Amino acid sequence: MGQTQAGQGVLGLLEVLGPEGHVVDAERQLVQASHDGEGTNGAIPGLSVVRVEAAEFGHELVEADGRLFDHQAQAALRHQGPRAVGAAGGGGRDLPDLAAGSTDPHEDGCARSRVEAHADEQALGVQVTDHTRMDLALELHLAAQRPEAPAQDSAVGVPRHEGGIGGFGSGLEGRYFLGMVASIETRARSLLTPVPTGERDRIRAAATGRLAHRRWYDELACLHEVQVAAPERPRNATSPARVVAWNAERGRDVPALAALLREAAPQLVLLSEIDVGMARSGNRHTALDLAAALGFGCVYGVEFVELSLGGAKERAACAGQKNSHGLHGGAILSRSPLERPVVVRIEHDGAWLGPERDEPRVGGRIAVMGTWRLDGMPVTVASVHLESHSEPSARGAQIASLLDAIESYARDAPVLIGGDLNTFSMGLSELTGPDALKQALAEDPGRLGSPVRHEPLFEIARSRGYTWDRANELGTPTHRVAEPTPSHRTALKLDWFLVRGLSCSAPAVLSATAPDGRALSDHEPIAVTCEL
């Protein structure tokens, strides 16, 4: 998201759990509290608010000890200084400027958060303003209260090595909350913290909805980690470098995926929809297995903790089976080690835990990101997956959120973004009946294969200096259906590269099929050659 202005709009959709468990009108109560003389920090007794977001206007409300804080009041923040949730009975309290790195050895976890925030802020080069600084402090304060899970035999990963934001050994870690939407997760691990089967079952049996989701989202450590495995025999990336981006739809057939990628001969692979410990893909760590088959290193981020066997067809096909770890996410595979690996969480609204979707999961859409050295020069690379159940405007907001994070991560660096942008050219709200798509296609017959003018994300990217014309095979669809056999491409172009500061050539859409004609994914891989 871009910068927001104080007073730009009203509070958006707010869900606040009342004292008896129902949703109440938080906006009305906040206004009433303000009228009662409480200002923006109005007391609303009995509310239990984990977090409420209205990203378009930059609002965020956080409850502490019966008091509701409106983080959008930027003028007040500049006057009062950053604030964070205090200890029991303390409500909100002022914090010294994070940029000064001041601490008091007698203070509680907030002081430790400031030290971590300052160190990580320097490591990432985050540009911190007054209103984001408070959110940074709050997020790190809350993270500081979450104990680190000890290493367990059942943890997901490879033999342990120390990872960190500076590469594979600096040990710095933290979490950055940017623009009230995106967070950059920097806790590099060789082993993801597991979510035991009993815990997944307990979450599924508990309350659903966005507020419930926020609780689980905060508590599940694997959603705030990035898994790193170095290549066995590192080789420097040199120009011209072939890059492939692919939504591999679970990664069910690792040997066939590896064979296709070997033929494409990439130096870098950007993957989405990759399973870890899911019955539908053989309970494998598909990203690590694929990386090992190619001799690549791997950076993996968890998009969702899956609470079921998957969609309706997957549940039927895997009936009676169990997920060993129940994770689903994205990855970057590379012949050379990626520096500063992170996961950018571009949305986490909790809709997948709501009753409107038949696939319960905790998490949200992500980009896995790192610094890739091409001819020795740093290039920011990101494997991204945007929400499919959304509007074009929401996809635009997610790209804006990612681009904000990239600027905070490595301002002005060359950038290569690749992945499934789900550019359907329409939103769910537009599909009001069986004739809606027919009417849309009558007005613009080529919109499914050429969706640029219907998807705001492209203009947002263009305004930030990104291009796509020479990085993509324009007009060629990237969506594949497996049934009825034989599999074939549809008219949809969903997968894209967005680039800045790179010279691109030879874009191609590859065929996601095995030699026997089987569809390996419902998306075709896309490829491009990059040079500085």
Instruction: List low-pLDDT spans.
Output: 1-154, 158-172
Tally of helical segments: 12
Shape: globular
Distance between the termini: 28 Å
Textual characterization of the structure:
The protein has 532 residues and is of the alpha+beta class. It has twelve helices and 27 strands. The strands form seven sheets. Strands 11, 13, 14, 15, 16, 17, 19, 26 and 27 form a nine-stranded mixed sheet that branches. A seven-stranded mixed sheet has the order 9-10-18-20-21-22-25. Strands 3-4-5 form a three-stranded antiparallel sheet, with no helix packed on it. Strand 6 (83-85) and strand 7 form a beta hairpin. The longest helix is centred in the last third of the chain and has 18 residues, at 392-409. The two termini are 28 Å apart.
Short description:
The chain is an alpha+beta fold and 532 residues long. The protein has 12 helices and 27 strands.
